[in-house]
Amino acid sequence: MTIASLRETEAGDTVGAQRLTDGIHLVVDALKLNEVEAVYGVVGIPITDLARLAQASGIRYIGFRHESAAGHAAAAAGFLTRKPGICLTVSAPGFLNGLVALANATVNCFPMVQISGSSERHLVDLQRGDYEEMDQLAAARQFAKAAYRVHRAEDIGRGVARAIRTAVSGRPGGVYLDIPAAVLGEVIDAGLGAASLWRVVDPAPRQVPEPAALDRAIELLASAQRPLVVLGKGAAYAQADDQIREFVERTGIPYLPMSMAKGLLPDDHPQSVASTRSLALRRADVVMLVGARLNWLLGHGDAPQWNPDVKFIQVDIASTELDSNQPIAAPLVGDVGSVLAALSERTGPGRITVPAPWRDELAARSADNVAKMSKRLAAAETAHPMKFLGALQAIRDVLRDNPRAYLVNEGANALDLARNTIGMQVPRHRLDSGTWGVMGIGLGFAIAAAVESGDPVVAIEGDSAFGFSGMELETICRYDLPIVTVVLNNSGVYRGDAAASESGDPAPTALQARHDLMIAAFGGRGYRATTPDEVTTALREALALGKPALIDCVIDPADGTESGNIAHLNPKGITVQR
Ligand code: ADP
């Protein structure tokens, strides 16, 4: 029997004396058994029926315009829920488009499974030139935490279980699951099929270090003159908010939140040293990293950004992360929740104290920095044309009244300035370009946040960054999601005031768009704002409506720095005429 004839008879029907099922039904049944509630994808051969059946079976299917955005949505769903986000793609080109997101999920330690249909193995492997021919498994392997292929319908349950387990256990990441068209269409006995499925039990088991390892860390913290805790997005992912707060507040240690850890404790918490980050890193003598890697975002732990004599404690689920950049004096391998609970339990009252001179030093520098920033903000408030900081202050004030709103953020200046201007009050409500500093996550992340939570989302986008996923405005409108996209439009990559070349072509960094008109084409509400007051009015109205909206903020084309805060990563060479 073929898949087409099975569709006509419906799986589960009796053909002769036998009840039957097929690969597509088994995939959907396996996902349901593992409590998958949403699938993000783009349909086409050979997975269109899979999406239809998932939807008919009660799984929410969100259909995108590009697989990369669908994949980013699945990755964000994984980060927010601690369950692997599922992305569904078609063969070869669709698969490759999704692979960017799978790789990004892996780099960011977000659990995700990309399930892709693929072409016929007997044609692909002999390179006979099949429709969308590609050895997808081989391609995926180098970009994912793991990659598996299912060859028989009876192995679909095993493949799904294995993919889910691998995605969430240990250090989370992206897993690729290849299911060729022939397997999706394979018909088998329904009883055998049902018996081949299983539900993954305890997919991310708790993991606690030895008491001696805990005591080593406590000893170091107790001896510190200038201790510091750095909270990373692994801490946010762990959903150990109470344990983190308890440990930080009980010890009184100053803490620095990495961008996606903002809100684990509210950003106006008295122990936060976000406003005196450079001093904290340069002076701290014992630093406890909690779900944060010493990668480029933390200057690899090197002097002069860091105190050359600093001693590190590192809490991480992945033992191989430790010693990757600097010696780790006290390794704590385990999940953040269990480790911090155990540390709190073993730290007697008064055992760890923070010397007053350290607190005073940080407080004095923080007061200086806050005063300097206030001057910049005040100047931007009245500037015309509008500056990034003018628009961002307006957004900040509206968001203060809407703490449940998720904030998605990407761009160069739009990312750096929004991160520093807008405080977060709630854990896991800030999603951004992450470890790669990647552009294109914006609308996919926003869609996942809205779908998974039902809460409003504000996506603050640089005009260049927005372009990578801009067509997903249609997806937002089609599913009527409460997402307000705010484009900080300075008409260019970095800035929009570069002169055209002598040939008459626009400068490489030039852009032009009326983004408010774009969303109108899809049925959403577009606003154009040229002053901070107009931003405030539009954002308040859009959030109150709870409907798809876009605010095109017209920013001074001369505002913005090349590459934002990371200009030093550009090659030096000979200066190019700007
Ligand atoms: P940031 O960019 O915010 O500094 P990173 O992505 O560099 O954060 O670091 C996240 C780290 O958190 C990774 O090394 C990852 O292994 C770790 N991690 C992820 N989940 C957990 C968990 N549940 N418990 C402990 N560590 C975790």
UniProtKB/TrEMBL annotation:
Superkingdom of origin organism: Bacteria
Thiamine pyrophosphate enzyme central domain residues: 214-343
GO molecular function: oxalyl-CoA decarboxylase activity
Record domain Thiamine pyrophosphate enzyme TPP-binding: where: 418-553
Top enzyme class: lyase
Cofactor(s) in the UniProt record: thiamine diphosphate
Keywords attached to this entry: Lyase, Magnesium, Metal-binding, Thiamine pyrophosphate
Keyword Transmembrane helix: no
Domain Thiamine pyrophosphate enzyme N-terminal TPP-binding: 23-138
EC number: 4.1.1.8
PANTHER family according to UniProt: 2-HYDROXYACYL-COA LYASE, 2-HYDROXYACYL-COA LYASE 1
Family the UniProt entry places it in: Belongs to the TPP enzyme family.
Family annotation (NCBIfam families): oxalate_oxc, PRK09259.1
Protein's name in the database: Oxalyl-CoA decarboxylase
